[in-house]
Amino acid sequence: MRQNQPKKTVASTIKSVKPLVIATWKTDLAVETAAAYLAKGASALDAVEQGCRIEEANEKGQSVGKGGLPDRDGNVTLDACIMDEKGNYGAVLGVKNIKHVISVARKVMEDTPHVMLVGEGAEQFAVSKGFERENLLTEASKKAWEKWKIKSEYKPIINIENHDTIGMLAVDKDGNISGACTTSGLAYKLAGRVGDSPIIGGGLFVDNEVGGASATGLGEEVLKTVGSFLIVELMRQGKTPQEACEIAIGRIVNKPGKDFKNFQVGYIAVNKQGETGAYSIHQWFSYNLFKNGENKNIQSNYFNKA
Length: 306
Ligand code: GLY
What we know:
By secondary structure, the chain is of the alpha+beta class. Helix content is 32%, strand content 23%. The protein is built from 9 helices and 13 strands. An 8-stranded mixed β-sheet has the order 4-3-2-6-5-1-11-12. Strands 7-8-9-10-13 form a 5-stranded mixed β-sheet. Helix 2 runs antiparallel to helix 3 (44-57). Bound molecules: glycine. Glycine (GLY) binds at residues 165, 183, 185-186, 195-197, 216-219.
């Protein structure tokens, strides 16, 4: 071993990887947008908010924001949360008529003494902050719901349109980590159903000392294992982001008698050194990674190779 070699500190490693953005699914434009904010010197918090807004405004995406598939009564209800490098958190649950719920979640975090607002209260709060009400049910999503109503079968579909909840984590120029998560939840859910996405430790968790994690897929399964918190805690204990994501998927699939054939869960993670990980139950979960100036969509490794 060479003598007098400078010791690699966490700070020097971060310098080589930042800015960095990782997000669930094929989210090229969202990640590019977040990376562009970081390149201009924005905070990781601003970057993840702006990145998520891209998907919320994308009416073709039927699992996030405007154009999201409705609940079984035909109402589009959105969930979102955001977490900053200081451990602050804000969330909104079951919000109708407001597209950019990630920004409402940020307002909850920054402008109220609370961490969560739900339903009508969240909508009224958003309006009081200047957000405009609009109809979130597009013609395409209405048609899909009307078709679904003929049989009204409740059946989570694996990798629905190869797209789902957007979870995003970013590392900014100062090496600070923030995360955001936004979704319309399960298509044709029972009215009032909330999944993992807006729940701290479920769909998202960030600890700036350690790293961050986010989830996509069937929220009930993520919540039962507190997936994102679990991943961050595993990284705290020395696991790499990849190892941590794999263990968290293991917690779901290795439950006695668990039939995981018909649902998907996918995780992404980043640690303080800028190492990333991703893992899912089934094939076809992908994620976008912006690192070293390149934005790539990458297929995740997965558990069910049978
Ligand atoms: N992961 C999104 C949901 O289950 O609502």
